[in-house]
Amino acid sequence: xxSRLFDQIIFGPVRSxxxxxxxxxxxxxxxxxxxxxxxxxxxxxxx
Length: 47
What we know:
mainly beta
């Protein structure tokens, strides 16, 4: 699974089955993963 950190605060459009087409808002720092969890499903990868 590739790391997918977004480089802007607003990104998109993002296509979703649930919501259709929408814009995403990144509230985290744009250059690094700050979470210390290593979730299997995380799109940002392992810490």
